[in-house]
Specification:
Structural class of chain A: alpha+beta
Helix content of chain A: 25-40%
Order of helices and strands of chain A: HEEEEHEEHEHHEHEEHEEHEEEHH
Number of helices of chain B: 4
Number of domains of chain B: 1
Number of strands of chain B: 0
Strand content of chain A: 25-35%
Largest sheet of chain A: 5 strands, mixed
Helix content of chain B: 55-70%
Oligomer: heterodimer
Structural class of chain B: mainly alpha
Radius of gyration of chain A: 20 Å
Shape of chain B: globular
Strand content of chain B: under 5%
């Protein structure tokens, strides 16, 4: 991912206004961004769990080793472009596209990447990370912030404090997560080998379903998402991955004394 | 990771890295930040197997710690890999006996501990 594209997407979020409403998982999504000359809005169909699975497994993370030389490859752009191309329904800001044979591929690549970055823009809440005291309870709470949609005025809606409550992961889940994360594929020889790392988000998405108990802040059909089966079925894949990864990465620094 | 020969080689390199690391850390602490990457490269023994093998070793080390506390079902591949790791650890320990004073490993014929500097024999 190029630096300029990431910055474009983040600028949208920083301009956003937090709104205390439920995030509508079943609503079509849109991403708005501006350049110096114009403003654009990309409209997407609902992004399915299969779309996300395909995106995460398409991320290339490899290390190439030849004797002492070592090169790391981390490439997300191809997979991001594929996600955008498969889910994009319409765009505005480019004029009449009806005469173009394949308008999706005619869109500027940096715009498509920026839209893709905005689609996957979800992460652990900054407020939660700065919280002072942990509260002991049967469930582990993870709080997310996410950029979801934009309105016609190019204002992006940022949802803060989206809560995911998990039951405490047992040793079986921890082992599964660590095992799957370590299940690398090594091709070539020991001296000149390629290590391909698994997509941890794809693994996290699966484990999310085993551990989730409840969520706050999401709706489907205008009603809050309450039942566990509905959460597993309706929850956005990127949110599943982000929440489960935050659950497994709770590394507080411990100081004795 | 099913290649046990590669795992064996990686385990041997992993233990040697652990042996060299404390001294490398001390040298790095007094090295200017802009030279640290270069210094680290020259201080640490080069890895001769793909990184994936080391990722797998990290998992096996975690699994060993878990098994000290609780029984977890293991696959045949995990059992075989844990045995390779154990054999390589014993081989390393035989070649690097612990200091009787501080417990840190030393070269086989060292007369003085590289950590606490006390006489070994």
């Amino acid at each position: 991912m190029s630096k300029s594209n990431s910055t474009a997407a983040r600028n949208d979020i920083s301009e956003a206004n937090p709104v205390p409403v439920l995030l509508p998982l079943d609503a079509p999504r849109s991403v708005a961004f501006k350049t110096k000359k114009a403003a654009f809005i990309y409209h997407f169909r609902r992004i399915s769990l299969e779309d996300w699975q395909k995106f995460f497994t398409g991320i290339v993370h490899q290390t190439l080793q030849s004797k002492a030389a070592r090169e790391e490859v981390f490439e997300t752009e191809s997979s991001l472009l594929e996600l955008v191309e498969n889910t994009l329904t319409s765009v505005s800001g480019y004029g009449d596209l009806s005469k173009l044979k394949n308008w999706r591929q005619c869109l500027p690549i940096q715009h498509r990447v920026a839209a893709g970055v905005a689609l996957r823009s979800v992460g652990e809440s900054k407020a939660a990370a700065n919280a002072e005291l942990p509260i002991l309870c049967d469930l582990v709470e993870v709080s997310l912030d996410a950029n979801w949609g934009a309105d016609s005025t190019c204002k992006t809606t940022l949802y803060s404090g989206l809560i995911h409550r998990f039951r405490q992961p047992g040793i079986a889940e921890l082992k599964r997560f660590n095992f799957e994360s370590a299940r690398v594929r090594v091709t070539g020889t020991a001296d000149a080998g390629i290590t391909t790392y698994p997509a941890r988000q794809a693994i996290a998405m699966k484990i999310y379903d085993d551990l989730i108990e409840s969520v706050d802040g999401y709706s489907v059909g205008g009603a809050p998402l309450t039942c566990v089966d509905a959460i597993k079925r309706e929850m956005d894949g990127a949110h599943k991955a982000a929440a489960a990864l935050a659950l497994f990465n709770q590394d507080d620094e411990i100081t004795i004394g | 990771m099913r290649d046990m020969a590669m795992l064996k080689r990686a385990a041997a390199e992993f233990f040697i890295e652990g042996f060299v690391a404390p001294e490398a850390g001390r040298i790095l602490a007094s090295t200017p930040p802009d030279l640290q990457a270069k210094a680290l490269e020259s201080l640490m023994p080069p890895r001769t197997v793909p990184d994936g093998a080391f990722q797998w070793i990290d998992y096996l080390i975690w699994l060993e710690r878990v098994l000290e506390l609780v029984d977890v079902p293991l696959s045949g591949m995990e059992v075989e890999a844990l045995m390779v790791l154990k054999r390589e650890r014993i081989r390393f320990q035989n070649g690097h006996p612990s200091c009787p004073h501080c417990g840190m490993p030393n070269e086989q014929y060292a007369l003085r501990c590289r950590e606490c500097m006390k006489d070994i024999n």
